[in-house]
Amino acid sequence: MLPIIWMLLTSMKPGNEIFSAGLDVLPKNPQPVENYTYALTSIPLMRMMLNGAIVCGGILIVQLLTSIPCAYALAKIKFRAAPWVFSLVLLGLCIPIQVPALPLYLALANLGLLNTYFALMLPFFLSVFAIFLFRQFFKSFPDEIIQAARVDGMSEFEIVWRVVTPAAWPAIAAFSIFSIAAHWNDLYWPLIVISKDSLATPPLGVAFFFDPESGTDFGSLMAAATIISAPLVIAFLVAQRQFIQGITMTGVK
Question: Has this prediction a pTM greater than 0.85?
């Protein structure tokens, strides 16, 4: 909690107190109204937060639609290549976004898709971490229930979405927290594919307050950081029980 508390206190300080010689935790002359007003009016911060919500929501929906069936196949369907496919999934965890960034950018540029929501979401539609997490969770799901569903005539896709997925809400909540936090705070990829302010995401808004020539306005910067961090903190507090349950149950067989 210390970084969050420090951010809140700094967001209420004037500039001359942030870099004072002494270490004053509490502001002597607080100016929260000025800092937060400037943070909200100097840039379209609410629009940027809306863009972040659209991007994070779109990425999460597609990630769940693609990773849950893949994880179910690796966990419950027996085929010879399953160990090799799972090894490729683990290797995929080692590949950062910086590796395919250039070919992805060139492909999007050639297709004329830069400065779109699709460009912001495309590289993250398939999450190998989600496949790994859900596969570990599905391994603990009773095989007897799946066999009974097959005897009743349900297809594998029906079993995935009507039987297995409703029992995986703790894992889904845990992954949702990881996914939303990662893409809400992502600066690298939006900085590459977005040049329009109307499509900017929250981290691009925070970067607006960095000015090496006139000096960075750290009070307003911390105010903006507090505003864009609040939804993540609230989401974690709401889904805290499911988050912890999902993480702990992924290793239970």
Answer: no
